[in-house]
TrEMBL record:
<dbReference type="Pfam" id="PF00126">
    <property type="entry name" value="HTH_1"/>
</dbReference>
<keyword id="KW-0805">Transcription regulation</keyword>
<dbReference type="Pfam" id="PF03466">
    <property type="entry name" value="LysR_substrate"/>
</dbReference>
<keyword id="KW-0804">Transcription</keyword>
<protein>
    <submittedName>
        <fullName>LysR family transcriptional regulator</fullName>
    </submittedName>
</protein>
<dbReference type="GO" id="GO:0003700">
    <property type="term" value="F:DNA-binding transcription factor activity"/>
</dbReference>
<comment type="similarity">
    <text>Belongs to the LysR transcriptional regulatory family.</text>
</comment>
<dbReference type="InterPro" id="IPR005119">
    <property type="entry name" value="LysR_subst-bd"/>
</dbReference>
<dbReference type="GO" id="GO:0000976">
    <property type="term" value="F:transcription cis-regulatory region binding"/>
</dbReference>
<feature type="domain" description="HTH lysR-type">
    <location>
        <begin position="1"/>
        <end position="58"/>
    </location>
</feature>
<keyword id="KW-0238">DNA-binding</keyword>
<dbReference type="InterPro" id="IPR036388">
    <property type="entry name" value="WH-like_DNA-bd_sf"/>
</dbReference>
<dbReference type="InterPro" id="IPR000847">
    <property type="entry name" value="LysR_HTH_N"/>
</dbReference>
<dbReference type="InterPro" id="IPR036390">
    <property type="entry name" value="WH_DNA-bd_sf"/>
</dbReference>
Length: 295
């Protein structure tokens, strides 16, 4: 029995699907199947029931799963402790960023990280929240920033704060909608949001809570694009409070009800649960906590 076989067993059990497990493990599906078969032969037990939509643990598999998870956790802790004994933390870390860097306090954080741990090299990749989350899950990124609720138990979060959102209007629609009620707002053209951005979930929850189903214009995934389309009169949309207030002050957009915050979403720093005891992740979180003045 090898650690990589146990890792495959646990991943397949968590995903409930061989193809999805193979993707996360960066293996082919036949390789995953072969590892599970070898483990079943060593144990003399069937670990999974197969069905057209995926796999599920047998009763024996359910009993062995906690032990397998514990062995993997102990192996990770041993590796992380060994790395910690090597002295000064060093190496490259890949961080996923979203939105506006200033909103993340990215400059202050990376400056402090470089000052305290000069041998750590940071590589940033900019994207939208859902893509950053998926890349962290796949371990293509070591960590990243995420806006919204984290739906995965195997992804850990460091809550940083909340971002408020306002409804922004084109100047051409201000007279009709600036002080309108929600029913009236539901009749306005709204800028649609890509399913791959957290803003899509935030907007959908807002619309449901106000019992409206607006007519959507297009599908967009970046705040800068939304802002430009609002400025040019394409439709209305939600913007982060600070961004909305900044551009409302120069008259390029108008805010509904003078900038009332209509919803909030958590901003979080995310990383794989398998790296909770990793000294490198600890350094990232400790310096980020200092910059954000977290208790």
């Amino acid at each position: 029995m090898e650690l990589y076989q146990l890792r495959t067993f646990v991943t397949v059990a968590q995903q409930g699907h061989l193809t999805q497990a193979a993707e996360l493990l960066h293996l082919s599906q036949p390789a995953v199947t072969a590892q599970i078969k070898a483990l079943e032969e060593q144990f003399g037990l069937a670990l999974f029931d197969r069905y057209p939509g995926g796999v599920s643990l047998t009763e024996a598999g359910k009993l062995l799963m906690p032990e397998a998870e514990q062995i993997l956790a102990q192996a990770r802790d041993l590796l992380h402790k060994a790395k910690a004994l090597q002295g000064e933390p060093k190496g490259k870390v890949r961080i996923g960023t979203i939105g506006v860097p200033a909103r993340l306090k990215l400059g202050a954080w990376l400056s402090l990280l470089r000052k305290e741990f000069p041998l750590i090299t940071v590589q940033t990749t900019h994207g939208i929240s859902v893509s950053i989350l998926n890349e962290v899950r796949k371990k293509s990124l070591d960590a990243g920033f995420y806006l919204g609720r984290n739906p995965y138990q195997n992804v850990m979060t460091l809550p940083l704060g909340e971002i408020g959102f306002c409804i922004a209007l084109p100047v051409s629609l201000a007279e009709e909608y600036q002080n309108a009620d929600w029913a009236k707002l539901g009749e306005a053209p709204w800028l649609g949001l890509s399913q791959y951005t957290s803003l899509a979930d935030i907007s959908q929850e807002l619309w449901r809570s106000q019992n409206i189903a607006p007519k959507v214009v297009g599908e967009f995934d970046e705040e800068a694009t939304l802002l430009e389309l609002i400025k040019t009169g394409v439709g209305i949309g939600i913007l982060a409070e600070r961004t909305a207030q900044r551009f409302a002050s120069d008259g390029s957009i108008v805010l509904w009800r003078n900038g009332e915050v209509v919803t909030r979403a958590p901003l979080q720093f995310i990383y794989s649960g398998e790296r909770s005891s990793d000294p490198m992740i600890h350094k990232l979180c400790s310096t980020l906590s200092a910059v954000w003045q977290l208790e």
